């Protein structure tokens, strides 16, 4: 059974500004350099048919992982992530995300909706973490969901700072 991910963020800029960031190669390069972790890199960004897809690779060093994770999957975790963003329509943009851990039966996926809210915007994440390991899967899912919440907080803070630095 998968564990739910629910997260929200408030940005001081409009949906149009947030969307412009999320579809900008420079934003992703800057974000990976700032909070991508060891070996974090932008693998590619492509726009086709009004949808921008971003592919990333991040890693978490084994010494930073909880014991429940390293007991099942020793070594550093290499995580491949993908985000896709559609156009802004009626003050809203919708995105999807996926993540997979190399060599582990774990997957993360969901949606993000960014809407205008007064002078800024709000992003809402709805997703799930699934780890298919008997007995330990649920425990690992909860650890991943907790760590993902922290990562999303860091990404939200980076995005707000990046947007504030733009004219």
From TrEMBL:
It holds the Pfam family DUF2505. InterPro entries: DUF2505 (IPR019639). This is DUF2505 domain-containing protein. The lineage of its organism: Bacteria, Bacillati, Actinomycetota, Actinomycetes, Mycobacteriales.
